[in-house]
Amino acid sequence: MKRLFLLLICALLVSSACVAEEAARPAYVLQYGVRWFEEVGKLGLEGADGSALVPARFDAAGPFTEEWVEGRPMARVRINSRVGLIDATGATVIEPEWGSLEFAFGGAACAIEEQSSGSLRCFVDIGTGAGLGFTARSADLLAPDRLALYEVKPGPGKAAADPRAEALLAAAKGYNGCILVDSEWNVLAKPSCDYVDAFREGAARAHANSGYGFIRMDGSWLSEPVWDYAEGFSEGFAQVEQDGRCGYLKLDGSDGFGRQWKYATSFHSGVAFVYDGPVDDHDSGPSAVADEWQMIDASGNVLLSGLGQSYTFANGLARFEQAGLQGTRFGYFDASGNVAIEPAWKSAEDFSADGLALVRDGATGKFGFIDKTGALKIPCTLADAQGFVNGLAAFKGENGFWGFLDAEGNVAVEPVWGYVYGFDKPGYAKVLLESGWASYNTPYCIDRSGGLLGKGEFNSYVGGFW
C-alpha cells in the first residue's frame, strides 16, 4: 500500500512537471495573420483563430518575410535535413528537398543540393518550383540586381531549360569563368576573374591573375587587376597596394595621392590613417615603438602626426586608449583630432548608428552606454551587454539570462534566454534557450518584443540563419 502511494505521488509529480513544461512552452506570435505551433517537437502553421493550415510536420520553420517575393510572405521550412519554402497561406512554394535555400534573385531561389564543400548551386523558380536548367560552382549576390556566377553548366530542369537561362548557357559555352547578370537574367559581362566581392559605392573588388582590380556595375573594368592587394571602396576611395607601397584609388579610376606609404587604412568619417615608418623584423608590420602614423583627410592633407597606431572611426568618433595609474582607460576623439570624450572607461566599443557606445566602468566592472557627448545614457548597472544593432542592445540580467534594451534603457525583450544574437535583420533576432553548445543547434527566432517567429537551424550563409 505504501509503495502504491509513493508511485501515485511520483506520477503526480511527473504530470505536474509536464504541465509546467507545457505552460512554459514559448508562445508563437502572428505574422501576416498566421503563426507557428508546436506538437511533440514538430512545427505546424495555424491561422489567427487557431485553425490548422499545415499539420505539425516540420523540424524547423523560420519567420515569414517578403525577401523572396515582394508582396508574398514566405518562410523556410525543414524536414530532417531538407529545406523548402511555404507561403503564408500554407501552400508549398518549393518542396523541402534541398540542402539549403540561400537567397532570391530574379524570381528564383539559389539552392544547394547538399550542405558540403563543392556542392553546386542551382536556381529554382519560386513560382513553379522547377529548376532553371543550369548549375554553377558558385553564385555570389553582389547587389540586389547583380549576380556573379562561376563555371555555369547545363543542369536539372523540367523538360527543357528555362528561357531565362538560355542566354546564360550560351554565354557559358566554352567558358568557365565569371558571368555577371542582372535581375532580368541578362548577361552583362564575362569579366575574367576568380571572384568578385559585393558592390560598394558602385564598384566591386575583383581578383584575377594573382592581382586585384575593380569592376563597374556593367561588368567593365574600372581598374585592371594590377594591384598586389586592395580593399573595397569606402567614402570614394579604395586602399590599394603595389610593390610594397600603398595609396588610394578614386571612384573614377584615377590615382588618389600616389603610393606614398607602407601601410594605409580605409577612409571613415572623412579621414584615413597612413604609415611610412620603420617595420618590425621580417616586415611583419609597423614598428610597435615608432610613433609615425598620420591621419589624413580626403584631400590628402595631414591632420595629425606622431600617432602610435591607426584608429577606426565609427559614426564620427574613434576610440583611443591611454595608460594611467588605474590601468588602461578608453576615450574617443573626433575627425579633427580633438578629444571628444576623456579616457575614463575600462573598456569601450565603437559608436553604433544609434549614437550610443557600450562602455565598462573600471570601479564596478558593470556595463552601460554613453552618447557622443560622453554622458551616460544608460547607467553602468548591467552585468554584461552587447552594442546596439538596429535600435536594440542585448543585455544580461541579474538572473543570468539575456534580453534586449531600447535606446532609452527600457526593457524591450525580457531576459529569459540563455544567449542572444543581435537584430542584424531589423525585424528579428536569433536566440538560444541555454548558453553553451548544447542548445546551439536549436535556436529560436524572436521579434522586437520577444514573440517567437520560428525555431530551428537552416545553415544559410546568406540572409542569416533564417
Question: What can you see in these coordinates?
Answer:
There is one protein chain. With 466 residues, the chain is mainly beta. Helix content is 7%, strand content 46%. The chain is built from two helices and 43 strands. The strands form eleven sheets. A five-stranded antiparallel β-sheet has the order 8-9-10-11-14, covered by helices on one side. A four-stranded antiparallel β-sheet has the order 4-5-6-7, with no helix packed on it. A hairpin with a 2-residue loop joins strand 36 (384-389) and strand 37. The longest helix is centred in the first third of the chain and has 22 residues, at 2-23. The protein is flat. The N and C termini lie far apart (55 Å).
Q: In short, what is this structure?
A:
The protein is mainly β and 466 residues long. 7% of the residues lie in helices and 46% in strands. The strands form 11 sheets. It has a 5-stranded antiparallel beta sheet, with helices on one face. A 4-stranded antiparallel beta sheet has the order 4-5-6-7, with no helix packed on it. It has a 4-stranded antiparallel beta sheet with strand order 12-13-15-16, with helices on one face.
